[in-house]
């Protein structure tokens, strides 16, 4: 985890309003564990002032050049254009200079080998699940339940399929896959595989619903949370979430950037999470 | 000396960057602002802490403090609002778990602290007095006095003087007092804390602000209001440092929106003997190193052998 000055390799719109950016990641791309993130500095000049956190979608090596040097590492993020920062990012081109801090945060625990694994992704929340799927598939069956408002919000499903993941798509308007919420599909899958472990990332209402389902069935759940962040390294305490056992008298706040962004569900305070306003809806400023 | 001669005089020699604040010798005038640098260890992977003039810790209180509800931060144009709520581990846990790391770092450690009552301020000051590894303290007086109708200590000259003289009497270390800018005339407060025994002043703390989400029509901070920091506040900070420098004879540390070396130079020229860098650490963890190197380069380019030739050199 360091600050790296690097360049954009490619930046393409993969679905209306969603982009995939590949950056050169020498010495840090392949260090990343599933569920970790980077803090992305959109441009050298201000504004926007703060960096933006993005989950890491994929890392790997570029095909070797004929220069005899070892192959170069890359890292990919997928992002949705929601405000000023991502608005500037969508204009970046190959060769543009950027800065990233990372890889940061605590990623997913891979769980028990051999057990069924169910990944639940909502919209752009799909991002950290791809690297996770890549690791889990070595140890057993992996299913991806992918939900979105419309077909435009369903991303990268074929890439999961290429890993060998069974995928199930649902959309609120029925424009792709099953009509309805991804949580309906989750209930059915858990009926069939009651021993499965669940990994979820998506908008807070979805996370909340997934928790309620898993809690009732005593299913082990890990969630990856989103938060507005300033530093990304546990210094500013701006991105906190309430931990299990939190109360007015005994406040217990955990940094999403350092204790998370992935949390085992039993570490969080579900009395408040997703029930109170104040959760992240992306930086629109 | 003519400009050309000066350049020659300085050529080949590194200019002196060291300054002294209230008896604390800093190898250069650049330090992190309290609350933007954790307890130092958070940033250790990203920069060489020993290059810093000093390290100022997150604000500590007598007992651990949980902090505010979320959202706690909001970005604005060239600034950020925060209402963290002074979340901290408390003075005892700081001494047990955080100070051992700082002890090994070869740069002065300045502990920032605050209280909700005079008693709390006095108690923390007493405990800090016993610690040889603490070079000095920075007193945050931008908090409400819960025993006196919530008046903010630092906005009233009498309340400010009262807390400073109490801390002074319980503390055997250099005392820096950090001033809030949310006052009508900062020089009145500056004089009051100087008379009450402050060894140095740092200013400014954040400017109280507010931002609204127009779609939900809710405040963007759970606390409704928060402290504005970042480049947006720098001209206000430079003006206030200028006023305070003229009002007092103790050293002044300039704080507020420093991002680039030239920003720090502005504060030094108006008379700040040192500076603190805050929000910029979030944007670029190397910002303080860039600023230190940039100040040194400026001295060389201007043919100045000593940073003191620059400090307070404002031409009016």
Structural notes for this entry:
The complex is a heterodimer of chains A (285) and B (316). Chain A has helices at 84-89, 127-136, 157-163, 182-192, 204-217; strands at 2-15, 18-24, 37-41, 52-55, 58-61, 73-80, 97-104, 117-122, 142-148, 166-171, 178-179, 197-201, 221-224, 240-242, 253-255, 262-264. Chain A is 17% helix and 31% strand. In chain A, helix 4 packs parallel to helix 5 (204-217). Chain A is globular. Chain A has a 7-stranded antiparallel beta sheet with strand order 4-3-7-1-2-6-5. In chain A, strands 11-10-9-8-12-13-16 form a 7-stranded mixed beta sheet, sandwiched between helices. Chain B is of the alpha/beta class and 316 residues long. Chain B has one domain (3-67, 85-208, 227-309): Aldolase class I (TIM Barrel, Alpha-Beta Barrel), CATH 3.20.20.70. Helix content of chain B is 32%, strand content 20%. Chain B has helices at 3-10, 91-103, 118-129, 157-170, 186-195, 234-247, 261-270, 280-283, 287-301, and strands at 19-21, 24-26, 30-32, 55-56, 73-76, 79-82, 109-113, 136-140, 144-145, 151-152, 175-178, 200-203, 207-210, 212-213, 218-219, 225-229, 252-255, 274-277. An 8-stranded parallel beta sheet of chain B has the order 3-18-17-12-11-8-7-4. A 4-stranded antiparallel beta sheet of chain B has the order 5-6-16-13, with no helix packed on it. In chain B, helix 7 crosses helix 9. The longest helix of chain B has 15 residues, at 287-301. Chain B is globular, with a radius of gyration of 19 Å. The chains are: A alpha/beta (285), B alpha/beta (316). Chains A and B meet through loops of A and strand 5, strand 6 and helix 8 of B.
What's this, in brief?
The complex is a heterodimer of chains A (285) and B (316). With 285 residues, chain A is of the alpha/beta class.
